[in-house]
Write the structure tokens for this entry.
Amino acid sequence: MLALLNYDFPVSRATRRFLNDCGTDLTESVERPERLNTARKLFERRIRYWECRPMPIQPEFVVAPADSRVIVGSLSERSALFLKDKFFDSEELLGSNKSQWMATFEQGDFAIFRLTPDKYHYNHAPVAGVVEDFYEISGGYHSCNPGAVVSVVTPYSKNKRVVTVIDTEVPGGSGVGLVAMIEVVALMIGDIVQAYSEKEYEDPRPVVKGMFLKKGVPKSLYRPGSSTDVLLFQKGRVGFAEDLIRNMGRPDVQSRFSVGFGRSLAETDVKVRSLIAIRREEV
């Protein structure tokens, strides 16, 4: 409660200094920077993404759902990106009563996007398609900080989360099969507000089954705190961008993930709506 109250207090000089040190550009905001005078307003700020977050026009491209730090991996033992059970338990992540989705994404690929407090906290649709399923799973509020991920077993599948399964094999879709987008709440976040808007931030509405999602537009908003997005892809349907794979395996970079999992696992900073994966032909 004390933390939530602090979000509505006037922004301190220390907070401004922290944002400056992180390279946060408040001139991207829809609101004038001087009006972002509380931590909540800074955290929930809207940006002119149509101007400052360009998106590739190719329909077969999958884009980042958030300004974040990303790690990619695979659930298949035959993949060089095999990271099974290191970050989450698939059945627990998707919900134990959702066995059909467990089977759908078995041996598939995943990407984990970690949003830090200085980031823009709207999530955008990473693909175009129809919402096949949408549900919430109750859970705790473990930290998604790398240190906590290493020390707590599968925290992403223990936290409160919202699951959206998107069928992209539809007219106007991205054609990458079924994609699960899991929005994971973490420290101090009590809610994920579904606020789908086809144009800028106009007329936000909740996400429901049967709705068509346009790629790259706002889907939801995290309330203040830390947070994480997880994308699951069916086996063989996408290939991750080479720069993400190359950077993740850099031997000259060490992270708390590297120390905890015994291999190089450097995160890459990505902007929302930037390329993260490309469609492959179904196998």
